[in-house]
Specification:
single chain, alpha/beta, Uracil-DNA Glycosylase, subunit E, 5-stranded mixed sheet, 8 helices, 5 strands, about 40% helix, globular, binds uracil
């Protein structure tokens, strides 16, 4: 396991998979390094690749709105992705690319020690919760792993494509708020 400095250095120079050849920026992750909650997407899109920051494009705007529904701000959470470099044309990251990159995320989780991880979408949920996780059936459900509560909600991009999924996501966000309260997470600490 590396400390933050070592980890950031390794990521910014990473050549473990082919995505390094087309990236503009490695999108390492943002947020407090003692965050109680982590949100994990699948991989950077165009805007993220240009800026070097996760969820800054249209999906990021919706993510901010989703967080504000339950009084969370982006500044209070750690936000990262399964892969740290943009897959060309926003295709799904390949298994080999995920395998090459996942160690960095695991290192981030080990340093942050969050109470809650929320997977954004299928790719993140199948990688972090269970390989056969079914996002349509199992979004909003909770499971504890090594002392961390894990859940998945629809990816904001899926909600942009299909607004009919939004009411279910609203319910999932209320469940998340309940969990934040139960666990005394910032900013719900009493
Ligand atoms: N979609 C993701 O999965 N991650 C981002 O950072 C942006 C869009």
């Amino acid at each position: 396991m590396q400390n933050w400095e070592g980890l950031e250095y390794s990521c910014s120079n990473c050549t473990k998979c082919g995505l390094c050849q087309t990236r503009n920026h490695v999108v390492f992750g943002v947020g407090p390094r003692d965050a109680d909650v982590m949100f994990i997407g699948e991989g950077p899109g165009e805007q993220e690749d240009l800026k070097g920051e996760p969820f800054v494009g249209p999906a990021g705007k919706l993510l901010d709105d989703m967080l504000s529904i339950i009084d969370l701000s982006r500044e209070s959470c750690y936000i990262a992705n399964i892969v740290k470099c943009r897959p060309p044309h926003n295709r799904d990251p390949l298994d080999a690319e995920q395998d090459a990159c996942i160690g960095y995320l695991r290192n981030q989780v080990a340093l942050i020690k969050p109470k809650i991880i929320v997977c954004l979408g299928r790719i993140s949920a199948t990688r972090l919760i269970r390989p056969d996780f079914r996002i349509t059936r199992e979004h909003g459900t909770w499971t504890e792993r090594n002392g961390i509560w894990m859940s998945a909600i629809y990816h904001p991009s899926a909600l942009l494509r299909d607004p009919s999924k939004r009411p279910e996501t609203f319910e999932d966000l209320l469940t998340l708020r309940q969990k934040l309260r139960e666990l005394g997470c910032k900013p719900y600490t009493v």
